Amino acid sequence: MELTRLPTDDNIDGTQAIRRAAAILRRIGQGGSNGVKLGAITEALQLPRSTTHRILKCLVEEGLVRHEQDKRRYVVGRLTYELGLTVTHDTLEIAQWRIAIDRVAKRTGATSYLMGRSGIEATCLLKTEGSAMIRVIPVEVGQCRPLGVGAGSAALLAALDADTSEQVIQTIAPLLQSYPNLSQEAIRRIVTEARSTGFAVSKSNVVKDVIGIGMAIPMTEGTTYLALSIAALASQADHQTIENWKQIIREEIHAVLHA
Questions:
Q1: Is the dihedral of CA 194, 200, 204, 206 positive or negative?
Q2: For the HTH iclR-type domain, which residue ranges apply (predicted)?
Q3: Which residues contact 201 (CB under 8 A, 6 or more apart)?
Q4: What is the pLDDT of residues 130-152, one digit of tens each?
Q5: Does 47 share its domain with 65?
Q6: 96-120 as b/e, with b when 16 or more CB fall inside 10 Å?
Q7: Radius of gyration of the chain measured on its C-alpha atoms
Q8: pTM listed for this prediction
Q9: pLDDT tens across 145-182, in order?
Q10: For 152, which of 98, 134, 229, 255 could close a Cys bridge (C-beta 3.0–4.6 Å)?
C-alpha cells in the first residue's frame, strides 16, 4: 500500500479513474481549510498535470471540490461535507464521543480531539477548543494526517499489530519530509511508549512547543479505530500536569464506555 503512487494499470471499467479521484480528495483533505495547489497534488500522486486537472475539473463541477481561484487552491466542496453528514452507524458511534471531547477540553483547558483511522491515515472527526489563554489547534476537523503524525494518530498506529504498524511507518516515510522534527525512529519510540503506558505523547514533533497526548479507545470487537487526544503548549506542561491530563483522558473514555 502506498500513499504517493497510484496504480498505473489500464482499467476499462473506470476503477482507475475512481481511485485517482479518491486519492485526490484525500490529498485535498490533508490540506484542511488552507487547501492544496494543483502542483502539490500532482507531485504527491505522481500523476500528469493534465490528468489531475481534468479530474479536479470534474470534481469541482460535481460539488465534491471547490476551487478558490484567487488563491489558486482546491478545498473540500459542499457536497463532500453534506455526504459526511449522512446518519449512519459510524456517525452515531462517533457522536457518542462528543460529550467526552467537550469534558476533556473543559477539565484540561487544552484543545481536545477525536481522531479516526482510515487506512494509513488519521482524520480529525471532532474538536473542542480549550479554555487556555493561548489555544493550540494543530489540526482542524476533516484534516487528515499519516498515521504516526500527532498524538492521536500515533495512538491509533500503536493499536495495530507490530508488523502492520511497521509497514505503515515505512510507507509514510517519504511524507515525513514535511515534519523535520519527526523521523521513523521517533515514531517507533512513541509507538513503543504508547503500547507500554497506553498513551502516545508527541512533544514538538509536529508543531514547535506543542505537546499532544493521545489514547486509543478500546473496542469490544475488531481493531481500534478511534483515539481521544489533546494539544497544548509544551512549555506550560510539567510532568505532574501531563500525568493529570492522562488521568482525565482515561476517566472520560471510561465514562463513555461504561455509560
A1: positive
A2: 15-78
A3: 151, 190, 193, 194, 211, 212, 213, 214, 242
A4: 877 566 667 788 888 899 999 99
A5: yes
A6: ebeebbebbbebbbbbbbbbbbeeb
A7: 19
A8: 0.70
A9: 899 999 999 999 999 999 999 999 999 998 888 888 89
A10: 229
